[in-house]
Protein 1
Amino acid sequence: MYQYNHSDQTLVNERVAQFRRQTESYLKGELTEDQFRALRLRNGLYIQTHAPMLRVAVPYGVLNSTQCRMIAHIARHYDKGYCHFTTRQNIQFNWPKLEQVPDILAELASVQMHAIQTSGNCMRNTTTDPLAGVAQDELEDPRPYCEIIRQWTTLHPEFDYLPRKFKIAVSGSQHDRAATQFHDIGVHLVRNEHHEIGFKILVGGGLGRTPIIGQVIRPFLEKQHLLSYLEAILRIYNLLGRRDNKYKARIKILVKETGLEKFTALVDQEWQCIKNTLLLDEARLNEISTHFTLPAYCHHDAAYDFSALGTQTPAFTTWLKHNTVAHKVTGYRAVVLSLKAPNTPPGDLTDQQLDAIADLAEQYSFGEIRSTHRQNLVFADVKEADLFSLWEALQAQHLATPNIGTATDIICCPGLDFCSLANAGSIGITKEINDALDDMDYLHDLGDIKINISGCMNGCAHQSVGHIGILGVDKKGVEWYQLTLGGSSDNDAAIGERLGPAVSKQDVTQAIITILEVYASQRAEEESFLTMVNRVGIEPFRERVYATA
Amino acid sequence: MQLLKNKEIIENTWQYLAIDQAITNGDILISAQRWQQEKTSLTTHTGQLGIRLLASDQLADIVDALPHVAVIDLYITDFTDGRSFSQAWLLRHRYQFKGEIRASGDYLSDQVCYLARVGVNAFQPNNGCNVKKEINYLNDFSVHYQ
């Protein structure tokens, strides 16, 4: 993974010093609330329902064991002993004290971490495929490009006060595991007709109140022009994006209101002026790529034979099937650590689990941990021969629930319990669904079902692209939930269709169970939930849900 | 009122004349709108000329003024409106403006390091007392990626 050089470290240290000064100025009354808000947000600090919330950047979702232990340390000493992984691969602490945040940032800087630009109307953490570098369907490893974008976006002097937040995701695979079609800019590594690898650039995607699928603004961009093209898009957005209404300020609205054709022309015109001044040369690319060389894999002639183990321990076989992923190197698999154990808020980990994960990563996966868009973790490089002992260790930490890709692998925002924006609870609903779906055999029989729950229209848990989306709404001080079906953030990107009127809190879990029953009873053989919804539409589900509600 | 220019504190000799104020001799700042309306007479002004540019103004409207002006004053009414940063960058890099680019108004002292990097070389904070600390704030970062 990327290792800081002297300049990288200096920059992060200087940012800590700057924020320490800003915090002191605020506490002395020298900065107003509004002024300090803009500054603290750019250092990941929100003021939430109960306490400040600090969001720490995990650049493109890659952590090492040392960093993981630091997160454990911060959870233990500055928080209530846990942290939360977000859908954008970052980490949130819910209980830091404002005056201690500069110290937390200094501790993070000591392990090459920071909270720079994890909130505020600026360029945010770049995200990518958690299987980067190991996926079988990968054209090229996206991480060097993510790092190049990370550096370019960090403290960019021109684009730190954009109309609204700005998110970039990069994918290097056939299967888009980074939801790039729902980002302000999506970057896909592609091969053109001359067999050269470059980028397909998408623009104007996004979730939140107005979910929109990104559109292709440039089908093929030569690698050397990556940064100049991004700069052209950002400059046009910074100058022309709406600032009169925060709900219409994202680039998706600018693209929609301007029209893709005209927007593309504006970007191209700007790009022509700068394309030869910001070239990404081969030497620079090679230098960054050396940070992402493959680990020292052992050679295996054939895949490991699990048949003996499977007979003795069916639970292991189940976990192997659901929580591990094929690897491009024979004899290895990627392992997904489920952060969706029953009775635990999705994405939460305790300090003790974090320490254990750090140790296990060192023991089994070259000391590296990835965070995923669906709020789980990945050990990307585990020897198949080690999987059984890793499974046992993960079980002891409650990290081996075999529910990856199932209806209890729920994306969930902090909701009303923690977030000042939320209209309704989401963690409680998740727990209810978990309790109702406690039969693992039924869960596995239902197969690939993505349920996403957000506590408000801001849609932090991406409910509009859940196969089943649950959106908390406030009706005269009472929590209600709107349901959508058929959303997807994969290659077949789609925004879910609303099932009908919102359902009350006491009915929402039964409504989900009913939806799953309709699927189980009416599906064609081997038909996934999403395929069936696309085939039959929402009517059969609507009928049953509102008949029983 | 003091001004921070090229990292030195100097006296501000400039006066902004609103559109209904008569043009006087000396160093004056006028709006982009006034430039459009009175450019013929303004080019023969006795004294130095500068244009105050709001974030909502179009650079295209004042490009023809650049050979005639010594100062472009980016007057910031809302420090969260980042258009001024792109205006400064374009003035320096696209239009090769060599004169003074000033930030004034409601920008934050904590923004001077960014403003300097996009081409601003003079600062006139609303609170004149901030000028001194802004010299130090210019040095917040000794390294950068862009």
Protein 2
Amino acid sequence: MDSDTLLARITDYVNRPNPYPLYAELREAGPVVRQADGSYLVGTYHEIAALLHDPRMSVDPRIRGETTHKPPFLRLDDPEHHRLRTLAMRPFGPPHSPGRVDAMRGEIDQLTEELMEPFQAGRQIDIVDDFAYPLPVTVICRLLGVPREDEPLFREWSDAIVASADVRPEEDSTERDEAGDQARSEMGRYLVDLAEKRRGKPSDDLLSAFANEPDPDRRLTQEELAETAVLLLIAGHETTVNLITNGVLTLLRQPEHLDQLRREPDLLPRAVEELLRYEPPVHMRERIPLADIDVAGTTIPEGTSVVLALASGNRDPKRFHEPDRFDPTRPDNQHLGFGSGIHLCYGAPLARIEAQAALGALIPHLGTARLVQDPPPYRQNAMLRGPRHLPIQL
Amino acid sequence: MAGDLRDGRIVIIGASLAGLRAAEALREEGFTGSLTVVGDEPHPPYDRPPLSKQVLLGLVAADSTGLPMRRDPDAEWRLGVRATGLDPLGKRVLLADGESVPYDRVLITTGTRARPWPKAEEAALDGVFTLRTREDAGGLAERLAAGPRRVLVIGGGFTGSEIASACRERGLDVTVAERGPAPLVGALGGTLSKLAAVMQRNHGVDLRTGVTVTTLRGDGSGRFSGAELSDGSRVEADVCVVALGAVRNVEWLADSGLAAGPRGIACDAGCRAFNMYGIVTDDIFVAGDVSRFPHPLFGYQMLSLEHWGNAVEQAEVAAHNMVNPGPLRRPHLALPTFWSTQFGLNIKSVGVPTFSDHVVIAQGSLEARRLAMVYGYQGRVTAAVTVDMAKSLDYYRHLIETAAPFPPPPGAADRAIAADIPVPSDVPDPKGLSHGPTVALTGYLPDRRLTVVQPRG
Amino acid sequence: MRTVVDLTHCQGYAQCVFLAPKVFQLHGEEGLLYAPAVPDDQAERVRQAAAACPVQAILLGEEVSVDGR
């Protein structure tokens, strides 16, 4: 088949359970592969890593006229990206709040235990709905300061926003974009209202910190606060679910590694990193060059959409020895699971702690578990790829 | 042949970072023979960069920076004994305790020591320090903790600036005396040295440039009490740190016939030492701060680097080449890279900033204290320095490695307004500075054929 | 346990600071300081930090033992 339909095939829902052979085809045809619609697809590790560090690669959707309103920092370029990300980081991580995430470990362990209470031997459970989804949602709600019981409300908004950000080259996106914009503005208003309620009455959460920043130079505008809070709530709730679910799926498919981790629990942090390489929650990111750029001999014109297939880079044999093997002891594992460069995932440390807690608690109970359905049903989204359900028999 | 090289006797002289990494790498490369590591300090290998940072800040103890092993190198450690000579014909290393150690191949990683204050009597005053060893750092940290009236730092290079930064962070008054026009000018050139000067002054450093310290004064009972400067002024202080750069530990090789001098021991790109006639040896290898080696990206000039990363990478190349026959040997072509943390800023460099004629600020700005400065030489990118922008460094590394045109291509989202306007890099003659430059470019390699990689034309 | 960070490769992602804030700390926006001698009660966190480092710059190990062969 032609390589200029690769993106269409990768994003085709029938290939969601296993896009990896297509990634191999992409690397073979690459490093840079022009698509029929004029966009470019990059699937080799070194080229992706270089582009993620290239200051000429923009993430701003306004460049291509896709929107006119100012996006959250994830889709802003420096220096504005740096300013807003640094402000958003103040209550969350170093240098100003270095112990914040570490201090959440006990709470996360406790939540994990509570969720696992009904997991009796012999029962059938859905890893997604019963475990991998509720855990990060509860954690991000507490961190941000959003009532957990509002979950059905923001889940709907979140679905619409994530769908609008998906890559679907074969489809007219107008309707999705409109639905996404509306959801974004409603969700933003909801979060700004929550923040306003905490002004002068701070509780220990990020919305309170944003609303009560004493230094006017460091205060987010209402629009910035809305965009930032929407981003954090969605990112905290759409990605970690895939990481945990993919972890269970991978270990149940490869019982020898399940055994290995049961015998050597110290390997868990490295196993989570390997999971981020082998089955990452985020498969693709888009960039737009601000000038004509040369990548491995191909000139990509200014303003063209460039899709970086991070999950393909993670399986590049030029970078990783035996890339299609899941190996929790893999040395030198500089995966692209959280991206790289200035946009490296803001919530990465939280995702790591949640995945380690969740898998660490679950692994001892998976000894006799089996997959009820393999492959499981997947979510529509190709960029944020993961199972919609993962039924297992304990 | 290869089998023989993996056996026999290897001696490493110098038990610091390069010596340790070489010992580990030899075992990783399959060396099964006997391995001896000689070190003049009594301690197992320890890390030095923290000594001027977290140790002086009082965050960690001076004796806590012991280096972790990647693997046990299964070596005999002869610590606390100085090597006094090398007999290349008899193939023995002579030691200060009168013993000698035979070798089949030897690796020299003796590094550098702090350049002392030239007047021994003044240097002996209580309260006068240099900073190189664990003991130096421990003694200095103790004095800083005691709350001296003022600290005088002589020399505004990286070490002197980091010491001044630590003093200010501890709330101590500090004076920096630098012979050049600004701190760091020898390593980074004119533009960034101006930023360094502003940072020092903004943080309350009493920075004196264009002056030298002429005399260190005692209080009559052998304690340092102040110094006189070439402009006639006087600085009252309780502590003085002499940060005048480093001296390479080569004196012990005076009779060895090797090409060893003040700038280090000359070696080829495969880390093999040259003798004084420019003939390359095949059983004497050199790595780390004590070496000088040719680099094709910088006109094949001989680089001598005092960089942590160079010690690691060169030690690994040397170890590889010590146990592999000619055609399998590797050149040491890693790009020079270093970092410094001072006055709240993280400064990182790749390439050779002194190998330049012009610079541009490619991203960010001096005002924001966050920028990427790119150095060019005759229309080619040769170095980059970032200030709080380390994530950009890999991009510029790639430009240097591919000999990309200077100024670098436009298009960065956060490009500086003046990104298209190169200004002279303004790297002064190192002779005019009181701190040694971090990168020295000296001489020219006689034997080009030893280097294999050519940058794209 | 001892640790050393290859600050030549460190890009200031600070993942280690999040995961083991008693051992690693940021100095300014991206300069990293750390305690080379890891307290026993921090070893597990430091192992997590080393695994998580996006540029794999954190080395862990025992201090060199020089008791001879």
Protein 3
Amino acid sequence: MSELLDFNLVEASEALKNKKISSLELTKAYLKSISDTSSLGAYLEIVENKAISMAKESDKKLIDGTARPLEGIPIGIKDMFCTKDIKTTASSKILENFVPTYESTVTQNLWNDGAVILGKLSCDEFAMGSSNETAAKGNVINPWLKNKKMSPGGSSGGSAAAVAARSALAATGTDTGGSIRQPAAFCGITGLKPTYGRCSRWGIVAFSSSLDQAGPLTRTVSDAALMLNSMAGYDQKDSTSANLKMPDLMDYLDKGIKGKKIGIPKEYTQDGISEDIVKFYEKSIDLLKDEGAEIIPVSLPHTKYALPAYYIIAPAEASSNLARYDGVRYGARQEASSLDEMYELTRGNGFGDEVKRRIMIGTYVLSSGYYDAYYLKAQKVRRLIKEDFENVYKQVDYILTPSTPTTSFELGKKQDPLTMYLNDIFTVPASLAGLPGISLPVGLDKSGLPIGIQLIANSFDEPGLISTARVLEMSAGFNFIADGAAK
Amino acid sequence: MPNKDTIVDVPTVNKIARLCRLDIPEVNKESLTNDLNNILGFVAQLDEVDTSNVEPLASVTGHKLPLRSDDVNDGNIEDLVLKNAPESSSGFFVVPKVIE
């Protein structure tokens, strides 16, 4: 079985097309690995029968020569994506019995391209969190240093843990302020957040609509390219979807970076960042320089205000989006004698603490008398942050930063909400500016935990992002496997 | 933005909870108030930024909102719409009695 798990997405796809392996045996190997690694708690729902029947369908197409780009590839889906007839809870108690009657555009795109669904992956409740601890059914365990019970990061913690544990060949995630890149960094895998508008938001449980983007979590940069090829695309059903064709990213894997300019923002090496991360950050700069890139110091002066602006804008949008959970149209309902009491009890009982905090903050900053001071102010600062990037992209092609200030931390060490928010300090700025970013593993810290480095490109330059990330990936040569991964 | 530490008190928290229809148990109110004050105190650092003459940014797409013709393209799915409702009857969502 083990050699089947050794294939990354691109290799498995080749092996399937050359008929060296079948989708059924590959899918069965992953179903076994889901059961072998079940103590990590990455999956909320496993759809074995559906996986087997999709795999058989793929095998037919592989034989009759009508194979599609992701034919027969078994993947996991973050529980934020609505999947028709498969329970979709967003890791929340309020949606514990929700079974969508429709399919999200991104997942439909993946099935149209031949991917096989293994199941639904845990995440922070409504994607609000950075440790996967806000999930209603409990945290996921990072497969790295498994016995120490480290956080997989969040909010796409289940997705990152499953890919690192080899219980999914790849997974979907959503990223609002870092929810793909931070867990990818914590779990030693690759996570790509595309440009805002690249992937349709239709059918994704809404958190903060001006920031939410779907993207892939994979083992390698080329895997991410292949998967994003299928996920992305214009969709009439999302009014913010970009009507812009993305080139085939697989054509950009080996373009190299000779003559490209890489910006190093001085604001990203601040107090509180771990020494090992600084060391590998500096090493990554040197590696890119050796590959022919020009390294240019740059400044993004409003970086320090990104997190406070985010913690006004995201909760404001969340408080509005989550108003739909009213116990009337879907989700759990608490019985009460009056309508208002029913709303209050349903929502009070159905939402977890972090979600409640964000709804409260969002409601406050949007309320009469505070709207200008908080919400409008944050939107103005958001423009300044976007302008910082626009100015820097006049001088450089890409920006290199650490993905996170620290590596993974132990689960259950109670942190106050603000300390938790600081996890996303390096990922939030690109989110506010709508820019594509990728986190890839470049090394291990002293305790043996993965370190992620982030590359940020200009809007819609996913092709260049892939070329550059691939160069860093090849020269960093990260080839460690988590001790908690399926064998 | 007001001074840190004293931004919201328990009566204000009650008022916000009422606005967003969230039942907050009495025992949790003090810690929630503290959390909200910490968060609001943290975001108050935006006051340091000069934003005079800066337009608010609501969308990063830069494109105009696309329009489509107003056609029904998914009609006759009443059953699907009501499928996840906690209570429905004769094609309607059912809520507790609103008018006495």
Protein 4
Amino acid sequence: MTMDVSNLTVTKAVESLSENAVRSVDLVQALIGRIRERDPVLGAYVDLNEADALEQAAVADTRRAQGGAGRLLGVPLAIKDVLNVRGQSCRCGSRILEGYVSPYDATVVARLRAEGAVLLGRTNMDEFAMGSSTENSALKVTRNPANTAHVPGGSSGGSAAAVAGGIALASLGSDTGGSIRQPAAFCGCVGLKPTYGRVSRYGLVAFASSLDQVGPLTRNVRDAALLLGIIAGRDPADATTADVPVPDYAAGFTDSLKGVRLGLPREYFVDGMDPDVEGRVREAVAVCRGLGAEIVPVSLPHTEYAIATYYIIATAEASANLARYDGVRYGFRADGAEDSLDLYVRTRAQGFGPEVKRRIILGTYVLSSGYYDAYYLSAQKVRTLIRGDFDAAFQQCDAILAPVTPTPAYRFGERTGDPLSMYLSDIFTATINLAGICALSVPCGLTGGGLPVGLQVIGPAFGESAILRVGHAYERSRDGKAGA
Amino acid sequence: MNWKPAIGLEVHVQLKTRSKLFCGCSTAYGSEPNTQVCPVCLGYPGAMPVLNREAVRLTVRTGLMIGSEIPGFSKFDRKSYFYPDMPKNYQVSQYDQPFCVGGGVDIQVEGRTRRIRIVRIHLEEDVAKNMHFRTVSGIDFNRGGVPLMEIVSYPDLESPEEAQAFLLALKQILQYIDVSDCNLEAGNIRCDVNCSVRPADQAALGTKTEIKNMNTFKGVFHALEHEIQRQVSVLEGGGRVYQETLRWDPDAGATHAMRSKEDAHDYRYFPEPDLPPVRLDPAVVDGWRASLPEAPRVRRERLVREYGIPDYDAGVLTADQAVADYFEAAVRHASNAKAVSNWIMTEMLRRLSERAMDIRSVRISPESLGNLVQLTERRTLNSNTAKDVFAELFEQGGDPRSIVERRGLARISDPAALESLVDRVLTEQARSAADYRAGKAAALQFLVGQVMRLSKGQADPHQTADLLKSRLKT
């Protein structure tokens, strides 16, 4: 049978599969058909494993026929090209990982496999997750499905475009300073950045180790809750994962927000914000109030230092994390090197793109002898203050509402000449990574120009249940439909 | 002018763990290149370290043994530099919060005991091994990621002899507490040597040079002899010593400059974000402290005091903890501690070294050795037969008393039986008897030998000689 997959959620797919209304092979075939149609325009996928995915789907169908179970048995998913999948390439939007084949599965990938998911393909991204528009990919251009003249956001732009564009049911992305939430907001899908330590990073190619976190991009909040429940939890292979129990994140879902206190930070509604973005977010706040939530003003006074802090810490860590790409053991190796130093210089000069180089240089500089205290150490202190801001705010509320981005998706090339303005647009998202807490991006309408706007629901550490509950209630009232 | 050297050592010791510092790969030495590797120790994209707790225990154990403070809060840092033997191009090491701070190691040179102060002990991952062939180079990552403990001394050492004594004392401690095999051929111990000289009456240290990557104690000795001499001649010639990194060329017997301070690396240390800081539970550290063996020096003094053996013996026995353990176990079954010590120092250690064996794996139990000593003490065995019995025990184990019984080796203790043998010899060897009576004292030895022969070695030679003498007087 053929079926329409362009609006299919994971939850619905699981239901249809378990009722034997559809086979996994049918789902995968339908998706591949849609991808062939749409992806030449969207450019979301960098690798589509058609034959392999059909084989995985057939195995899933057989397992189901034999009574096998799995929370995602037969459900096709797209994986950002930053996660290792055994036997597949993992290029991270970079030339330097050309030819590299992963010898192992990232923990999150292994957990998806264990639940029977079908790994359909790999999605495009800014090189090494450095960027906010996916324009930094060395592999291809990805377009915003809402308006293909606009960027999809980044760095998980391929994942967001695939999910919002109807060519993936859901995807795993990574978020270091907004890389899940911002493209989700730009493209119009749901994106969740979990608390630092909630989800294993083992097998996630590191950009900034103290900020990176894997999370889902989905078509609704319930799907995000489902996927988080599968990938979250302590991993012996990642010493930074927390030993905190993983609840059923959808268990507390209701249509009401009675008794919920939602904070509104004045620092997140600033001059220069796009009026449509501010308008949609304020409307969403009003909807939440209408659902019974109490809206309380809160303050996050160190917000103005967040971007500087973020770009010092993230680039410092990146400068070390990316040192391993040297042409010695795997990936791209430049020709004609005369000695090992020359090999490093040529390989890295040819293998990395300009934004990655810019950040490596910046990170190397801030860690240099004589500058460490002024930059890195100070940034760590500010980070502690930023964390303190949120600790204080969450004394007064259960979750915080804010925009995801100051503007909607911009046009291609609009910001590439001005890296600083691109950096500054991360203000509402990068701050969350510095604090190590969790946040959800939920679509909250369109601008006058028809571009999606995202509402950010921010929660305290391990407060995913609370933000998912808020996001779900809001989404339901907006959609005005039962079910989902 | 009289010059005084100041020498400090940074000693890198491979710890005796089964797996590497941050992954489960084996640390076994001598396997085929690149057979003990995984995404973590190869620095593959996305791989992350997980700390080996045993390596932490061994590091802290070393610190406790040499009197370091254990701060209880420690962290790892990344040390960045590009080199093909380092897969991530940063080494996970410890910058400012090591596991152990302070402490000291006692050395004895020319009868003088001195305490060499220790700055710190930290833990880091070893690098891989570069191998150069005629036209290509290879890298063996089997060693990459093996736990390496770095022990840093103050520049308290004043001569190459002291440096060597320090390394030997340290090696003895490390083997004694079983934290490292200290196999020099396998590169288990390597060190960097800092050295400066100054006029003997000057307090402030001179400019130091650093000799990198020494892997023999003899090399350290010779390199220091050379480097001290070199610095002295530079200074006496009116020149100045530059702070630089040197390499020792053992064939040329000279040091060569590797790099000077001006182009020294900026390692850009920062806290390793993939490893949470380590908080040591004081109760756990107390447990580790309680499990420490007695220090060799303390034990040596105790053995002298408790068992009345000479200091020399105690020194030999305590050189290896297992030998000292063996001694104390054997003494429990014997009344003469010095006799037990003699057996261990001569027969036992000789046979062990001939076979390149460890006392932990010998067949002869401490109890058997104690019993053997008792048999000789009670004069049931003479010393030659006792050695035969020892040989059998060493090869096969067992109980000395049943060996003596089975082989009929017990000394003739019945006076009548010995008298009849003596009389028989005096009759058969009348000529020698006459020689003795005529004043040839040497003839007595021959007669004793004949009695021993007839008794198949079971006669007591002293008793026999006495009996012969009394018979020959009449």
